[in-house]
Amino acid sequence: MINLCNETLGRGRYKIAPPQPPAEFINDNSLDIIFAYSVFSHLSEETAENWIKEFSRILRPGGIFIATTQARYFLDFCQQFKEHPELIQTGWHKTLSQAFPDINRAISDYESGNFVHSPTGAGDVRNSSFYGETVIPRTYIKNHYEKYLKLRDFFDDANRLPQALFVLQKD
């Protein structure tokens, strides 16, 4: 991953963070922006909140955290494979068909503002203790993460971005 960053992004200091915080190599109040695409789409509730807390430590005042989570339509995407196995074309589709054993409950939980996570794991260091398929609604972010960072935006439009995007800012 570091080689890819060096080759595509050029000059910079790139490090690999551990699966669980803290990121000990980053000082308090030292970053202006953190971008996490398709990271919070997979973290467990506890791990996600621990990282939000960690980001509140390492962001400078006024610093921005931009992240994505699976979009609401992702639950419908999983449901179609569960209800119509003939649509399954890949191993990933099969995993999604099994990800949420009670898909209707997962949808209801999301609509009620609850954190929705299925601990599927993905091999290597991404074990099921913290990694899986995750869909976080705006209401949950506002109610749980604003004790660390302020919610500035939440965008869920599958026609423009395949995942929901949220922006948090440190006061």
From TrEMBL:
Methyltransferase type domain sequence ranges: 26-66
Molecular function per GO: S-adenosylmethionine-dependent methyltransferase activity
Coiled-coil parts of chain: none
CDD domains for this protein: AdoMet_MTases (cd02440)
InterPro entries, per database record: Methyltransf_11, SAM-dependent_MTases_sf
Name the UniProt record assigns to this protein: Conserved domain protein
Organism from which the protein derives: Bacillus cereus (strain ATCC 10987 / NRS 248)
